[in-house]
Design a protein that fits this description.
- The protein has three helices and no strands.
- It has helices at residues 3-6, 21-40, 48-66.
- The chain is flat and about 50 Å long.
């Protein structure tokens, strides 16, 4: 086994949804980058009510197709 693999700290499901601290740290870095990119996006935001209305319409259309 490599030294990198041996040094990974394993986590239990009670502690974290990730298997190792390295996985948790990598996800945290990715998530923070996504948030920073979103906050830096110059496009205007979409109002919550508009998004919810569009999603409700999409869900109803999918339900109608299944019926």
């Amino acid at each position: 086994m490599s030294d990198t693999f041996c040094s990974m700290t394993k986590l239990t499901p009670i502690e974290s949804e990730f298997a190792t601290t390295e996985e948790a740290e990598a996800y945290d870095a990715w998530f923070r980058a996504q948030v920073e990119a979103s906050l830096a996006d110059p496009r205007p935001g979409i109002p919550h009510d508009q998004v919810m209305a569009e999603l409700r319409a999409l869900i109803e259309a999918k339900k109608a197709k299944q019926a």
